[in-house]
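Project outcomes to date are best conveyed with an example. Our students and postdoctoral researchers have been running inverse folding experiments weekly, and each run begins with a structure described purely in tokens. The record below, which covers 1454 residues, was selected by the lab manager from last quarter's runs and is presented without edits.
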């Protein structure tokens, strides 16, 4: 007996025991009894017995587990476990014997004969042959297929032969019937019911009363009622129908037929006819004729040849279904059918159908017509627009081009003669069930999008192809196709989506400008909001300053449908469709080919450029970023991919520079995103992997290795721009110290048109940009260390200092300086200089960043810094300025400027508002701001370095004064500020931001020159004008530059030399001359007791002296920009630990509004009108309010006098509306002396003839909903607090000129007629010519009646309102003496006015109205009078008044 296993025994011992047990053949200690399985049979079937165990090897047996895999067939039916328990009876032995008996007697014992009582029996045809003649099947015409079922070819031939025999017998029987003198009447009487029923059922397509029908119904068969009983019941129903038809007349049958045909469904009617036709075809006409041969007596019913019967069967397929046919039309229909049949079988078709062809017995005309030759395309030119068609490459096919059909461009669509596919057909084809068709359609659409974005269709097509596609739902068509499970369809969809969203040229230029000054920051690719969103924002911001842009949020898109969101933002619409999850599935699960992978990564990069929110969405997508880093940024991969002849079939598991670029774009979305990428997704280890190793040593193709290394440096630069990944700098410091000196070898390895050299320059530029960002981060360490020490003492939390010191980065300065010197030595060799210019620009920017922060470091000796900058100036920069190449660069500023050449940054022809593009498709011209010959990147970097040097060493300012004297610079500045800036678009904003950097540093140099050089005045006015223009144009993200302009340039008295060089005196002299022969009107007085108004020169001199106070006033009113200013300052000053994102704010327009000089006045108006009620003013005005308004008016007066061109962008109506806020702010603010003086001075400027001619109050004004509403508020304020002030009155009178809206004059003479009592502006003080109010004559009848009514009632008097009195008298006089043709109402009104004027009791008014001649301000009443009326007027007066009674009361309706 074997012992049990003991603890400690191994598996080998167990196997040994098993072999001993098997060798002993001992009985098993345990017997396994297996229960019956309900899915198996009975117990004891032997299925539970195990096979004998093998002794030669150990075998593990599994119960009921088959040796081979089971076949993939449906599971066997379940067996009941109760089946064996059922009661079973023994079977009868006799039945068992009968069932197994196979004798012939058993076979014949149960014979059941078929019922042949109703079967048709035909006799064979008698022939003289002993045996039937053998025939070939080609000798017999095949009969038409029966609808009952399929027949073999042999059966069809036999049936046709028998039908021919039956037809022969029928003809013989017909001859016998004729011999027995059976007439047609007997035939009609024999079958009246069959003929009538046939006519009723067959309708218009059969002959009336002459057709033969079987004794069975074609519709009711009785199959559903059983075999015998059902057939009998159907026969009874058939007989009842026949009896019913016999009792009806022919007219009743036709009427009932029409009624049924009108009630039945067309589909059901066609089905019934098909059953009838099938039954007729199955039985055959000849067989029916054989049944009753003696009854076919009409000639049209006699048997016809077989081919004629087939033509009759085909004829109904060629005819259009007609619901009613009169008997007289049957013959014409048959003739038409025969003619059409003749056309079909004639020579019209290229293939003539043969009756012997198999399965071609049914002719389908519509299909056979496609075999015909295509009609010739239109050859002649026509003015009619034609549908655009494209070939398979997406190229537009001219409408008159005849292409061969073997190209596969002709199809069964519209305009079949024209080759190509229309957009509608491609859309339809893209949803086909055939995979190849879907793929082909998407590929063609992708090619069309590519060519449309390249502008190839701009001159050939009307409208925009891309707009048509998006309006038709192309974006969502691609999104639906992206969900296709087929790889080819997904690949074509990704290609089309890439063509629509991604612009490779845009990405190329963004990479190019990455190393420019502030090129690491970019604007988001967010489309401008639509009109609806703008209206919503206006409603939200109502009540705020019209120039203040409240931080209103974009309308919530969560509740909007995807198509509505995609209409104004395609990327946001795609994000709502969960495209990120689908892209992850495609890359992770479907694992497409390398091209699809690269295009997918480009699409993700384009989505990331949309906004910070989009970057966060990509980062939050489950497994997307992890998968991209794992699959396309591995640290280990197969080195075979670097072999030259190796075909790369998959990018998975291979490093990809596009994936690294995607990470860089995502990191630009914000410091939090960058931190998550570096730490959570372990991107820092990837950076070290691809930075530490030289591209030549990477097991990748050399081009891809350089790109990967370049993108790794750029990503690292973005991370260090946030103060992150600086510990990696310490780890790789030896590697960088080895790499940076090797960059000097690039100049010696130059080869023209060498792509590898260009990639190497980009890599070197990215490396230097990294050093620049690290230098800025290291410069913050001292500040953060001091803050950390203070916070430890105070117990507060602070940002820890970065793990990189200034001593680490300062070691690179001598190396960079030497390499910069080497690059500048190549400046005379234009080709090498052109190739090395990006690297030289990066060197210069590094030196500028170093010297802008070196003085802030405690470890730096200031004296050493001064010596270094002196050496740099004398050794490099000053010799560079004397180079002829530098002169050429200055001269190229104007040709390459985007401001001076707005067309260079205009949107592309196929640009879409919902998809932002930089319009770089096809490349920028060489002579443009982003072109290959642009001087802006290098000159901007040069000026940044100069600004840093003279900030450190102010004694070197005079060394660079020659820059401002360069003719190219002055010409550029002059043209830049006088030219109208381009409209703000994503493409223009990207370019303008770089050009504005150049302008700012030129002005910064001018500011330092003005502060240190006593003789600086030559270009002061020019620089001040440029500063004013630049301040109005700076875009969001440049708030720091705007603040610096306000602090040092805009209000700098040294840049306004007119204040000291006789400017005030010149203004007074100009006012004296008035530039006209007319005497200048006296300045308006004031209702307050103020001294005489000072001259404009005195006011200008006072304003010039108060420039510091004016500057403080404006800075306080720009306080709402403080948060944006802080963010912008951190970016420009390189405070990397405070930078939140490399994506700039969304561009909706400039930072400041165009009318920013009036901003304090507008802000005060909004605040005061919001704090007080309309009719009750404040009891007393605060002192700062008067001071603020005065300073605002002083600055506006100074600009209007000495910088009038700067304010040309503000319309005269807008200026007048802003100036009206003086009277609407507070109750008696306009009565304050300074306010009154400066307002009057500005009014005199705005009332000059040139300004008045440009005044247009009907045009919409920015920041103002309606000028009419503003004027009504002004009238109400005048009625309440004016005190008859003449200055206030002039502002009320200005909009009442004849050319402006009549509603304004109706408001004064209607609802606000009380203002006429206080509008006492003397004619001598009124600065506007009266002709502006009197010409042309008034034609509004209601206003004329109001003029007349106010005059005769005494509401309007000459001593109360002299100006409007002259206006009313002149217009009434012109109206009452007018004899021009007019309407009857106007004619009655003017005669009535003339009659009432003649009857006036006020002789003075009567004389003024009748004897008015011309306006004259010098006259006491303001106009001249006739001494005697002209003859014509006197005659007309007598004619009108002679029929009038002497006394007539005044009409009240006038």
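After processing, the design step wrote out the following sequence:
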């Amino acid at each position: 007996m074997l012992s049990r296993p003991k603890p400690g025994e191994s598996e080998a011992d167990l196997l040994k025991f098993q072999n001993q047990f098997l060798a002993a053949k001992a009985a098993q200690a345990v017997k396994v009894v297996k229960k019956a399985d309900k899915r198996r049979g009975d117990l004891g079937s032997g299925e539970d017995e195990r096979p004998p165990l093998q002794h030669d090897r150990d075998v593990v047996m599994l119960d009921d587990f088959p040796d081979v895999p089971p076949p993939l067939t449906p599971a066997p039916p379940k067996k009941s476990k109760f089946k064996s328990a059922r009661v079973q009876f023994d079977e009868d032995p006799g039945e068992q014997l009968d069932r197994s008996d196979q004798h012939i007697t058993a076979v014949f014992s149960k014979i059941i004969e078929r019922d042949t009582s109703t079967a048709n029996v035909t006799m064979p045809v008698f022939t003289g042959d002993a045996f039937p003649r053998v025939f070939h099947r080609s000798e017999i015409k095949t009969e038409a297929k029966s609808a009952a079922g399929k027949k073999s070819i042999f059966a069809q031939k036999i049936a046709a032969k028998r039908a021919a025999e039956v037809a022969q017998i029928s003809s013989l029987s017909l001859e016998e019937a004729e011999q027995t003198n059976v007439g047609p009447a007997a035939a009609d009487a024999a079958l009246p019911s069959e003929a009538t029923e046939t006519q009723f059922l067959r309708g218009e397509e059969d002959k009336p009363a002459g057709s033969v029908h079987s004794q069975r119904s074609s519709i009711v068969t009785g199959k559903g009622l059983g075999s015998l009983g059902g057939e009998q019941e159907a026969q009874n129903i058939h007989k009842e129908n026949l009896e019913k038809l016999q009792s009806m007349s022919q007219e009743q049958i036709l009427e009932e037929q029409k009624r049924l045909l009108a009630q039945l469904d067309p589909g059901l009617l066609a089905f019934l006819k098909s059953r009838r036709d099938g039954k007729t075809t199955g039985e055959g006409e000849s067989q029916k004729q054989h049944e009753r041969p003696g009854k076919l007596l009409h000639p049209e019913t006699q048997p016809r040849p077989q081919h004629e019967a087939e033509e009759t069967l085909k004829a109904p397929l060629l005819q259009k279904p007609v619901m009613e046919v009169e008997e007289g039309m049957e013959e014409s229909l048959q003739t038409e059918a025969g003619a059409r049949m003749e056309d079909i079988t004639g020579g019209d078709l290229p293939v003539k159908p043969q009756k012997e062809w198999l399965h071609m017995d049914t002719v389908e005309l519509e299909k056979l017509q496609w075999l015909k030759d295509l009609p010739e395309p239109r050859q002649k030119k026509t003015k009619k627009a034609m549908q655009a068609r494209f070939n398979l490459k997406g190229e537009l096919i001219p409408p008159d081009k005849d292409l061969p059909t073997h190209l596969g461009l002709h199809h069964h669509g519209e305009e079949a003669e024209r080759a190509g596919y229309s957009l509608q057909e491609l859309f339809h084809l893209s949803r086909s069930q055939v995979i190849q068709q879907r793929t082909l359609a998407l590929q063609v659409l992708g090619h069309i999008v590519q060519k449309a974005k390249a502008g190839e269709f701009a001159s050939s097509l009307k409208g925009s192809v891309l707009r048509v596609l998006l309006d038709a739902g192309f974006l969502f068509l691609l999104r639906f196709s992206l969900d296709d499970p087929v790889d080819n369809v997904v690949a074509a969809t990704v290609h089309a989506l890439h063509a629509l969203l991604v612009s490779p040229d845009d990405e190329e230029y963004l990479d190019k400008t990455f190393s420019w000054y502030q090129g690491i920051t970019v604007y988001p690719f967010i489309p401008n909001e639509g009109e609806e969103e703008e209206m919503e924002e206006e409603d939200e911001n109502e009540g705020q300053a019209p120039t203040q842009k409240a931080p209103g949020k974009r309308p919530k898109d969560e509740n909007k449908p995807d198509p509505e969101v995609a209409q104004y933002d395609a990327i946001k619409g795609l994000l709502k469709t969960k495209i990120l999850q689908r892209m992850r599935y495609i890359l992770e699960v479907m694992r497409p080919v390398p091209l699809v992978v690269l295009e997918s990564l480009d699409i993700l990069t384009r989505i990331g450029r949309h906004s910070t929110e989009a970057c966060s969405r990509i980062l939050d997508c489950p497994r997307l970023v992890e998968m991209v880093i794992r699959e396309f940024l591995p640290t280990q991969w197969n080195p075979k991919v670097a072999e030259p002849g190796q075909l790369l079939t998959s990018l998975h598991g291979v490093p990809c520079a596009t994936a690294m670029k995607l990470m860089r774009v995502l990191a630009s979305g914000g410091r939090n995103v960058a931190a998550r990428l570096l730490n959570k997704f372990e991107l820092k280890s990837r950076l070290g992997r691809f930075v530490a190793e030289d591209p030549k040593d990477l097991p990748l193709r050399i081009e891809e290795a350089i790109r990967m290394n370049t993108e790794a440096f750029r990503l690292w630069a973005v991370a260090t721009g946030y103060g992150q990944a600086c510990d990696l700098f310490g780890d790789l410091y030896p590697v960088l110290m080895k790499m940076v000196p090797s960059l000097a070898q690039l100049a010696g390895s130059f080869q023209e048109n060498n792509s590898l050299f260009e990639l190497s320059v980009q890599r070197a530029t990215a490396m230097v940009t990294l050093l620049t960002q690290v230098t800025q981060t290291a410069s913050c360490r001292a500040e953060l260390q001091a803050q950390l020490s203070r916070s430890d003492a105070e117990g507060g939390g602070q940002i820890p200092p970065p793990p990189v010191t200034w001593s680490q980065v300062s070691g690179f300065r001598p190396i960079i300086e030497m390499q910069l010197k080497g690059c500048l030595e190549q400046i005379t060799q234009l080709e090498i200089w052109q190739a090395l210019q990006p690297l030289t620009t990066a060197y210069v920017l590094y030196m500028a960043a170093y010297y802008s922060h070196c003085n802030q470091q405690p470890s730096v000796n200031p004296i050493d810094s001064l010596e270094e900058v002196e050496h740099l100036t004398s050794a490099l920069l000053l010799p560079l300025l004397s180079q002829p190449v530098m002169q050429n660069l200055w001269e190229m500023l104007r040709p390459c400027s985007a401001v001076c050449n707005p067309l260079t940054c205009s949107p592309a022809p196929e640009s879409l508002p919902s998809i932002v593009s930089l319009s770089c498709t096809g490349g920028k011209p060489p002579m443009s701001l982003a072109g290959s010959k642009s001087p802006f990147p290098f000159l901007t970097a040069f000026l940044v370095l100069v600004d840093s040097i003279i900030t450190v060493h102010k004694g070197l300012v005079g060394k660079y004064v020659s820059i401002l004297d360069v003719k190219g610079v002055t010409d550029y500045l002059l043209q830049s500020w006088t030219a109208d800036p381009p409209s703000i678009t994503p493409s223009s904003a990207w370019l303008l931001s770089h050009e504005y950097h150049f302008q700012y540093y030129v002005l910064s140099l001018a500011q330092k020159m003005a502060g240190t050089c006593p003789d600086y005045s030559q270009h002061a006015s020019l620089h001040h004008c440029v500063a004013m223009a630049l301040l109005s144009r700076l875009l969001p993200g440049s708030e720091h530059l705007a603040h610096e302009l306000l602090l040092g340039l805009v209000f700098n008295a040294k840049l306004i030399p007119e204040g000291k060089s006789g400017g005030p005196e010149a203004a007074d002299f100009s006012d004296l001359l008035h530039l006209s022969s007319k005497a200048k009107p006296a300045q308006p007085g004031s209702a307050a007791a103020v001294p005489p108004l000072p001259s404009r020169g005195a006011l200008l001199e006072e304003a010039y002296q108060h420039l510091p106070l004016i500057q403080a006033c404006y800075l306080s009113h720009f306080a709402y920009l403080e948060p944006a200013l802080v963010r912008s300052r951190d970016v420009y000053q390189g405070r990397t630990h405070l930078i939140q994102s490399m994506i700039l704010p969304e561009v909706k327009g400039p930072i400041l509004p165009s009318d920013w000089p009036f901003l304090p006045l507008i802000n005060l108006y909004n605040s005061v009108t919001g704090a007080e009620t309309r009719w009750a003013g404040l009891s007393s005005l605060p002192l700062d309010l008067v001071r603020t308004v005065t300073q605002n008016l002083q600055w506006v007066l100074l600009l209007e006098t000495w910088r009038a061109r700067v304010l040309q962008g503000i319309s005269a109506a807008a200026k007048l509306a802003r100036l009206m806020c003086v009277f609407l702010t507070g109750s008696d603010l306009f009565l304050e002396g300074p306010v009154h003086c400066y307002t009057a001075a500005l009014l005199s400027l705005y009332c000059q003839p040139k300004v008045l001619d440009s005044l247009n109050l009907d045009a919409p004004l920015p920041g103002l909903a309606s000028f009419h509403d503003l004027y009504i508020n002004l009238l109400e304020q005048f009625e309440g607090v004016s005190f008859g002030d003449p200055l206030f009155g002039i502002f009320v009178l200005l909009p009442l000129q004849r050319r402006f809206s009549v509603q304004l004059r109706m408001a004064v003479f209607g609802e606000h007629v009380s203002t006429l009592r206080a509008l006492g502006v003397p004619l001598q003080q009124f600065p506007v010519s009266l002709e502006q109010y009197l010409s042309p004559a008034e034609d509004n009848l209601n206003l004329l009646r109001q003029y007349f009514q106010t005059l005769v009632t005494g509401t309007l008097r000459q001593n109360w309102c002299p100006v409007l009195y002259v206006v009313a008298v002149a217009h009434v006089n012109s109206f009452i003496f007018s004899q021009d043709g007019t309407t009857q109402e106007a004619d009655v009104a003017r005669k009535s006015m003339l009659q009432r004027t003649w009857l006036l009791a006020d002789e003075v008014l009567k004389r003024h109205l009748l004897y008015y001649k011309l306006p004259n301000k010098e006259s006491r009443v303001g106009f001249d009078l006739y001494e005697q009326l002209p003859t014509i007027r006197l005659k007309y007066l007598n004619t009108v008044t002679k029929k009038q009674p002497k006394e007539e009361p005044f009409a009240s309706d006038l």
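The longest helix spans residues 153-179. The CA atoms of residues 1187 and 1235 lie 9 Å apart. The training component of this project remains on track.
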